[in-house]
Amino acid sequence: MKRRTFCQTTLAAAVATTLPGCGSGSKDVGGTIPAVTGAGEEISIGSAAISELAGSLNGHLYLQADAGYDAAKLVWNGMFDSKQPAMVVQCTSTDDVVNAVTFARERDLLVSIKCGGHSFPGKSTSDGGMMIDLSPMHAVDVDVDAMTARVGGGAWLGHVDTATMAHNMLTTTGTVSHTGVGGFTLGGGMGRTDRKMGLSIDNLLAATVVTASGDVVHASEDQNVDLFWGLRGGGGNFGVVTEFVFRLHPFNPMPYAGNLIYDVDKNFLEFYAELTDAAPDEANIEPNFAPDEDGNMVAYVGVTWCGDHAAGEKMLAPMLAYPGLKGGTLAPWSYHEIQTQWDGSAAHGLQYYLKSGMLNELTPEIIEIMVDFVNRGNTGSWFQHLGGATSRVASDATAYAHRNVAFNFGMMYASNDPAQNEAGIAAVREYYKAMEPHLAGFYTNLNDDTEQKTWGNYGPNYPRLVELKNRYDPGNLFRLNANIKPT
Fold first, then answer.
1. Chosen domain end from 251, 282, 309
2. What is the model's pTM?
């Protein structure tokens, strides 16, 4: 499709000020609607231009006055419910994305991209900008013979798991099934199988991208190789990915797995450090520190073994023999149930705040800090167990640079009461301040930080990312992300 140019042409000027196809039906918005640019300047957009955009879409355009707008603009983190985009463009095709991007670029509109809307710092939405919502584009097509999955840019991780496990195959996805594939993958993509199968980006074979110019570009190891390199860890800086192609791996949908409960103390963390230091690729062992039914802080340790059950039983036997074990079992368990067990505790609409960072090892100093803060009981925290196959990819092979770390460690506040936000955020920041000297960078999907820290987090890969930004988004249209500024 030839890219459309949205301007005040004779045709556009002839369009009535009602907006057919916007939300629940025609809306008279008068002459203009207010919006903001990427630089934060207030602008007005003529209703004729909006009508032309609406008429170009196979999907829907919602304005603030439309029925359906409030539902369309919602994102996962309830802290950002109050954000009011000027418009939400729900896209059902790559052509829709092209038209939305072109409209936004020509007006320098602030743009946010929503797939699952799971951005902890709320970058899936904005006040006064255009939200490009990919969620209707969630199809997953499995090629059993090629062992690949073609995935729409708005799919959730659960869509992928359901489609691939129907064929006893899998690619690495995360730990909450309603997370969007797009943001998850472009930041790196950690999950319960990354030690065996690699990160999501290590299984990415190709991507279809709408760039800031409105061009549709295909990126792979054979096409637009530099862009393909940057997409794998560079986030949403270079365009809107409307389709992914992933490598699939054979997988038993009933892995040896379970949840075990332990007291949180120095001995347990030393045991965990020793156990994971010697763990083979098949083992994924991830403590989550939270209160039990009596309000006491304990370690709920999620265990997933991606391999032969007998070998898993042997390797993981020390976890069942550890004297501090308080409960839980290991047994064959439905991977679908494993992948959805946190969906409720990570439900849409709660208030969330998180800080996180990478750890090379669990030193005595780090263990002391963790025991102290966990037992204060005012902040949740958890591990993502890394290494294995992920660590055997060179740090400059993809934009994602943190290949040699052992863990990602998150400190999180979650509540259904906004009145608790100030205290909860303060507690997370205090914990993070104590941990920060021991951290080896951070995972950009989770941790929002200053520009300088974000840029430094890419290490030696950063200059190459700037070159890509200059080429594909020189005006920084896609800035609501772990932003790489063009020169």
1. 251
2. 0.93
Query: Per-residue pLDDT tens for 192-211?
Result: 999 999 999 999 999 999 99
Amino acid code (one letter) for 457: N
* Same domain for 399 and 291: yes
The CA distance from 379 to 186, in Å, is 28
> Which residue type is seen at 312?
G
pLDDT in tens, 128-165: 999 999 999 999 999 999 999 999 999 999 999 999 99
Token digits of residue 105: 């670029």
What range defines the domain where residue 324 resides? 256-438
User: Does 289 reside within a domain?
Assistant: yes
Dist. CA 157–CA 162, nearest whole Å: 9
Is 440:386 a contact under the CB 8 Å cutoff?
Answer: no
Q: Are residue 79 and residue 17 in the same domain, yes or no?
A: yes
Q: Is residue 462 domain-resident?
A: no
Q: How far apart are CA 130 and CA 415, in angstroms?
A: 28
The pair of three-digit structure tokens given for residue 108, joined into one six-digit string: 């320098």
Taking the CA atoms of residue 104, residue 482, residue 68 and residue 344 in that order, the dihedral angle to the nearest 10 degrees is: 170
Kindly give the pairing relationship between strand 42-46 and strand 32-36.
Answer: antiparallel
